[in-house]
Amino acid sequence: MNRLSHSGLALCAGVLAGMLLAAPVAEAAKVPVYAITKAKVMTVSGAVIDNATVVLRDGLVTDVGPGAVIPKDARVFDGTGLTITPGLIDAFSGAGMPAARSGRGGPGGAGGGAAAAPTPDPIAPASNIYALLKAADALKARDSGITTIVPVPREGLVHGAAAVMDLVGDKPESMVVKSNVALAASIATLGQRYPGSLMGAMAFFRQALMDGSYHRSEVAAYEKAPSGRKRPSFDPGLDVWADVASGALPLMLQTPRIGDLRRAFALADEFKLKLVLAGNTQAFEEIALLKERKPALLVSVNYDPPRVGGFFGGSDDDKTRAEIASAEKNPAALNKEGIKFALVSAFATDFLAGIRKAIDNGLPREEALRAVTLTPAEILGVADRMGSIEKGKIANVVVWSGEPFAKETKVKMVFVDGELYEPEEKPAGPPGAGGPKPPGDNRGDAGRTDGRGLGEVK
Asked: Are 127 and 160 in contact (CB under 8 A)?
């Protein structure tokens, strides 16, 4: 009897100890409840709501509107004079990606501020791009109100599987919201190896698609009747191309040159592909074609990417200036003609500055907001969980000091998956100051997560 009593006591003690040990872990994992009151809320999917409250719980938007009920356990912030929008989505981003080996950036891209790293395999269809991400570097994009990215390498021909990633946490795999949304590739050349020309690049894509389709048919035939057949080899790269050729997986193709649009459409017509076209700074020149084809379009705000010199190593300054000017007017021109598109940084170092430039050149502010929230979410197939402020969606929310994208407006608070991040206030520099910080200068990168930048209601 005593032995049983002692056993029972030991069991109770063990259970109690386990509960005590588990309690701190549970507390640490719990995301606080937040309520921001008396703010202007731009839902994007619906009307702008004045004097509204947004409630965030368990990483979700649980209530929004003037009559939203504030939970008793919420941290409440006074949003008087502030504007709340969905988190910005950069659907073709260099955030957290390795720097370009050449220092020039990839096709249509910029080097950005990332540290140099070994160049990934330029042809890697079976790889996951998120594995290349440096989380600490990517998180810096939150300072601009960006909550979600689709990172893409700056260099290479076939980059691998693209993923939608929320900027929260310290490990790339924990950031993934939706994996394998497309096979990311670029109409590019590889210099000293095949393909070394645009004609060669398009021939490579065609051959890869044909090889993938043939491989898929061989595997299917073997599975149906294996007896007497040689077993097909396992080739994950060909499996990816087979998925693209069958239409099961979109091809996200960077099209930096105006002629690349027609090259991409010709490839899509030949193989019945689902395309997402990225870059397109001069796309307005193909308005009629875009109206006819209605592609999923990611329009770059990287208006002045690094350029290769002319035939004798020089450059045509007048031509360059004209291209930059037309690129800045490109989003407004597309919008005027009813072309649907998302805006993307495409390796630009200042996404907000690029968006402002599009607005300054005639893109309506509300269209600009939609182009970096709900439209990219629709293109990426995640509009059911992000891109607008609605009950039940992921709590990716930005609180602005005033009108979003105005030059004087600051990002005050950023919520990603319901977790609070507050950018550090950066001291004003001399007139004309700005641009990327010197390498190794990490001042102001950490931000704050205490919420003390707004008037917290005690």
From this structure: yes
SS (H, E, C) the chain: CHHHHHHHHHHHHHHHHHHHHHHHHHHHHCCCCEEEEEEEEECCCCCEEEEEEEEEECCEEEEEECCCCCCCCCEEEECCCCEEEECEEEEEECCCCCCCCCCCCCCCCCCCCCCCCCCCCCECCCCEHHHHCCHHHHHHHHHHCEEEEEECCCCCCEEEEEEEEECCCCCHHHHEEEEEEEEEEECCCCCCCCCCCHHHHHHHHHHHHHHHHHHHHHHHHHHHCCCCCCCCCCCHHHHHHHHHHHCCCCEEEEECCHHHHHHHHHHHHHHCCCEEEEECCCHHHHHHHHHHHCCEEEEECCCCCCCCCCCCCCCCHHHHHHHHHHHHHHHHHHHHCCCCCEEECCCCCCHHHHHHHHHHCCCCHHHHHHHCCHHHHHHHCCCCCCCCCCCCCECCEEEECCCCCCCCCCEEEEEECCEEEECCCCCCCCCCCCCCCCCCCCCCCCCECCCCCCEEEC
Tokens 């989505």 locate to: 89
Q: What is the pLDDT averaged over residues 100-127?
A: 61
CA 42/CA 397 separation, integer angstroms: 10
Q: What distance in Å separates the CA atoms of residue 272 and residue 237, rounded to the nearest whole number?
A: 19
**Among residues 325, 380, 382, which one has the least CA distance to residue 358?**
325
According to DSSP, the residues that pair with 184 across neighbouring strands are 160, 252
- Are 90 and 387 in contact by the 8 Å Cβ rule? The answer is no
* Partners of 300 in the β-ladder: 344
**Residue 343 CA: distances (Å) to CA of 29, 31, 185, 242, 250:** 34, 31, 18, 29, 19
The domains found in the chain, sorted by start residue, are 30-86+387-431+448-453 (2.30.40.10), 88-386 (3.20.20.140)
Q: Are 257 and 264 in contact (CB under 8 A)?
A: no
Q: Which residues contact 167 (CB under 8 A, 6 or more apart)?
A: 138, 139, 141, 142, 146, 147, 148, 149, 175, 416
pLDDT in tens, 181-202: 999 999 999 988 899 999 999 9
Q: Which residue(s) pair with 65 in the sheet?
A: 53
Summarised one tens digit per residue, pLDDT across range 221-231 is 999 999 999 99
Alpha-carbon torsion (456, 165, 139, 25), positive or negative: positive
Q: What is the pTM of this model?
A: 0.86
- In this structure, the strands spanning 342-344 and 275-279 are unpaired
Q: What's the pLDDT band for 455 if we cut at 50, 70, 90? A: low
